[in-house]
Design a protein that fits this description.
Shape: globular
Structural class: alpha/beta
Oligomer: single chain
Number of helices: 7
CATH architecture: 3-Layer(aba) Sandwich
Number of strands: 12
CATH topology: Rossmann fold
Radius of gyration: 17 Å
CATH superfamily: Vaccinia Virus protein VP39
Distance between the termini: 51 Å
CATH class: Alpha Beta
Largest sheet: 8 strands, mixed
Strand order of the largest sheet: 7-6-5-8-9-11-10-12
Helix content: 25-40%
Length: 250
């Protein structure tokens, strides 16, 4: 049972931190939506985080920009694997709570900024950019436009990649495919990692140097919930992205 241990108000809505007294697992909720869940050591209990971690682990990507913090679990896992993650979030509470309750390292690179604004001001290149920012169950509109992905490409090192976490409600929800179509305007190689039949679910839309990626496996298990994560990762398959239903007949 996850009991609330901290509640505060942010500009984006109320944030509630919940903890399981028996296992020490923690949950980060924003306006009622689960944003992060981790074991007592800060390792994610969310299969999509392990999916992104598993994809990045197949590459030599070292400098990894993560847009969207919440509990910061992906950054924690990447740092423990010897990578160099940088977190960007527009909510100052996120970094404080991630360090207080989710074991985000005190020296983790954190920037208080909107993702697009950060990229416009950024002068460095990143081996990978992870888009994991949400308002409710949707990526903020300005972070899923052709203009935004053009910014991402400018800030990617040669051979770099972008991975976006997308919430899919059901098999007829074409959200992931619409985002893939937008990415296709910037990169020739676009792939969708999805678990058809599981509803709701998270899909990963990726572009750039992603042609050789394989479906990920669990490589940094949390101390609880491992079985469920393994089962959900096994359901993930690469699939061709489909034209939006609004495109047919044009």
């Amino acid at each position: 049972m996850m009991e609330p241990i901290d509640v505060l108000q942010s500009e984006l809505g109320p944030i509630t931190i919940r903890r399981n007294a028996e296992t020490g697992a923690v949950l980060y909720e924003l306006d009622g939506w689960g944003q992060s869940t981790a074991d007592s050591g800060g390792i994610s209990q969310a299969s999509y985080i392990h999916a992104i971690f598993g994809l990045l682990s197949q590459t030599k990507a070292r400098d990894i920009l993560i847009i969207g913090c919440a509990g910061g679990t992906l950054a924690t896992m990447l740092a423990r694997a010897g990578r160099c993650p940088t977190l960007v979030d527009c909510d100052p509470h996120a970094f404080i709570l991630a360090r207080q309750y989710f074991n985000l390292a005190e020296d983790a690179a954190c920037h208080l900024a909107d993702g697009a604004a950060f990229l416009r001001a950024d002068t460095g290149l990143h081996d990978a950019v992870v888009l994991d920012a949400f308002v409710g169950d949707q990526i903020p509109p300005h972070l899923q436009t052709p203009e935004f992905f053009a910014l991402v490409r400018e800030r990617l090192a040669p051979g770099g990649m972008v991975l976006a976490n997308v919430h899919v409600k059901h098999d007829f929800d074409d959200y992931a495919d619409r985002l893939a179509k937008t990415m296709k305007g910037t990169w020739p190689e676009v792939r969708v990692l999805d678990a058809i039949g599981r509803c709701p679910r998270n899909a990963i839309v990726m572009a750039g140097g992603v042609a050789r990626l394989r479906p990920p496996k669990l490589s940094m298990p949390p101390n609880t919930g491992t079985g469920g994560i393994k089962a959900e990762l096994e359901q993930l398959k690469f699939r061709a992205w489909k034209a939006s239903r609004w495109d047919f007949g044009r």
